[in-house]
Write a structure and sequence with these properties.
The complex is a heterodimer of chains A (417) and B (116). Chain A is mostly helical and 417 residues long. Chain A has helices spanning 10-26, 31-52, 58-81, 100-105, 110-121, 128-138, 144-150, 155-171, 181-204, 210-229, 236-249, 275-288, 296-309, 318-332, 335-349, 351-360, 371-383, 387-400, 404-415. In chain A, helix 1 runs antiparallel to helix 2 (31-52), helix 9 (181-204) runs parallel beside helix 11 (236-249) and helix 10 (210-229) packs antiparallel against helix 11 (236-249). Mean pLDDT of chain A is 87; it is low at 82-89 and 92-110. Classes of the chains: A mainly alpha (417), B alpha+beta (116). Chains A and B meet through helix 1, helix 2 and helix 7 of A and helix 1, strand 2 and strand 5 of B.
Chain lengths: 417, 116
């Protein structure tokens, strides 16, 4: 058995699938038990495989071990509670299957289970932050430590958030699986939003563990694809989300230099963009166009596609981008969208017009403390030939910037004035 | 070829917070080490010992005192063992230098006295 017998991220993915399958059969109120049983199986593998080697069917071994651990825990709970809640019949196989082959030969209903788990993790009783953390933990198989590292949070804070989220699910008597047809659209929007937020945190952060953040962004793409490809949730906006994430992820390789320098989009070496991801994202965008639905994901994917399709910064189709930004602004009313729109205005009509557009939104909530608002202003004043105002704006940006690479970038721009 | 027994003592249980990715990474390191040993031309076999079990007998022949587990007082437990066929202690020590277990505990090497 070679080390390659363990496919990359096998344990992480299998953890998500096992929690999903066990929770489906045991019911959402036994979510914590399912998680504990899966953890027990993984630790058993850690204790045994170094000596015995990797079993021929690692997934089968892990699932059998987790299921037995879940059964043991259930029996123990029933004895302790002096009642028999007749849970045994919920479990598909009381006895372990005769061989690994039996299990491996089964068609995997696992993707359905993972979708059900996503709906549970994105239950309306939970806050957005809890949905993100719970989805990463349950569906993605990320550990508390990894989530904390990626989001620059304390382990204890993440662990506490997860505990609270599980309590809230119990209190709300949340159930497993896709919701009723009447709730489906709203519940699906919550799932898509959580995936979007998971990706954004992984994508936007310039600090924290880079490897984990890339894994998290890749997991968001996997989940978006899973949702989009599933018959119950195969809707245009799900494909638009896939397109949006892939087109952004395609730029990962060009975003940063080896020394951690940030490259702005206009300065990026476009030959380093991932052509395969761009092609896949463009195909997803085609599928997203199959209806009258125009979601924010459609518009944002359209914007990302403008960049992906442009051979150079100067050759970008700014007019089309402005149309998309107008629609996106009308849909979201977001000050950040207005900020990005102003940058496009400057590309078309010059820096003064961009500055006027920025001035019009200067009182929008939060913008005064947002470093990119000041950075955009600084760049436009520089282009407009007013280094004094540019310098003042860079200083405002430096004061608001959070991460070290961002501060380094701004300090350099200020020095170059 | 003389046989050597490598007893792998664990420094303690894995923490509850260890995650799937981390677990997989550790397993891969053990498997890779074992492969390196095999590629160097040595026969190696591994056995996992059950955790928290075992019996110790002491006292009178025919009527010993039997106690559970040899580890009641010891903080360290033996997680498992490897048998390597090699020419000398030096060879086995050289093979074990980069065994990933050193990160989690100690390795005790004993030569098995040949039967002939």
């Amino acid at each position: 058995m070679t080390p390659d017998a363990l496919v990359d991220h096998l344990f992480r993915r299998q953890a998500g699938q096992m929690v999903a399958t066990l929770t489906r059969h045991l019911g959402a109120r036994h979510l914590a038990l399912a998680e504990d049983a899966v953890q027990e199986a993984l630790v058993k593998a850690l204790q045994q495989w170094p000596f015995r080697g990797v079993p021929d069917h690692p997934e089968g071994w892990l699932f059998r071990t987790a299921r037995n651990a879940a059964l043991d825990r259930l029996r123990h709970e029933r004895v302790a509670a002096h009642k028999a809640p007749a849970l045994a019949h919920h479990l598909p196989r009381e006895a372990p299957p005769a061989s690994d082959a039996t299990l491996a030969g089964e068609p995997p209903p696992l993707d359905d289970d993972r979708l059900g788990l996503m709906f549970l993790a994105c239950h309306p009783a939970l806050s957005r932050e809890s949905r993100v953390a719970l989805t990463l933990k349950l569906v993605g198989g990320f550990s508390v430590r990894e989530i904390a590292r990626a989001y620059l949070a304390q382990d204890a804070a993440v662990a506490q958030r997860l505990v609270r989220a599980r309590h809230q699910l119990r209190a709300a008597e949340a159930s497993f699986g896709p919701p009723e047809a009447a709730d489906l659209a709203d519940r699906l929007d919550a799932v898509l939003e959580a995936i979007y937020l998971i990706f954004n945190e992984g994508y936007a952060a310039t600090e924290g563990d880079a490897l984990v953040r890339e894994d998290i962004a890749a997991e968001a793409i996997r989940q978006a694809r899973l949702v989009a490809a599933h018959p119950v949730t195969d809707v245009p906006r799900a494909w638009a989300l896939v397109a949006l994430l892939e087109l952004h992820a395609a730029r990962f390789p060009a975003r940063m230099g080896e020394d951690g320098t940030i490259f702005r989009l206009r300065d990026q070496d476009r030959s380093r963009w991932d052509r395969r991801l761009i092609a896949s994202g463009m195909r997803a965008l085609d599928r997203a166009a199959g209806g009258a639905d125009v979601s924010r994901y459609h518009l944002e994917a359209g914007l990302a596609a403008c960049h992906a399709a442009a051979p150079t910064w100067d050759a970008t189709d700014w007019r089309h981008m402005l149309d998309l930004y107008d629609d996106l602004l009308a849909l979201t009313g977001s000050p950040i969208v207005a900020l990005n729109r102003a940058v496009v205005v400057a590309q078309i009509e010059g820096p003064r017009a961009g500055l006027a557009a920025l001035d019009a939104i200067r009182d929008a909530p939060g913008l005064a403390r947002y470093h990119l608002f000041h950075a955009a202003k600084a760049e436009l004043w520089r282009e407009a030939g007013d280094p004094d105002r540019a310098s003042a704006a860079y200083r405002d940006a430096l004061e608001a910037a959070r991460s070290a690479p961002e501060r380094r970038f701004l300090a350099e721009r200020l020095e170059q004035l | 070829m003389p046989k050597y027994m490598l007893l792998l003592h664990d420094a303690g249980a894995a923490p509850d917070t260890i995650g799937p990715e981390e677990i997989q990474a550790i397993i891969k390191r053990y498997i890779a080490w074992r492969e390196r040993v095999e590629r160097s031309g040595y026969a190696i076999n591994g056995h996992k010992l059950r955790d928290g079990e075992g019996r110790t007998l002491r006292g009178t022949v025919g009527a010993p005192t039997v106690t559970d587990g040899p580890f009641a007082e010891a903080r360290e437990v033996i997680g498992g063992l490897f048998i390597i066929e090699a020419g000398s202690y030096d060879e086995v020590v050289a093979l074990s230098r980069d065994c990933p277990h050193l990160e989690f505990g100690t390795i005790e090497i004993r030569e098995v006295e040949p039967t002939s």
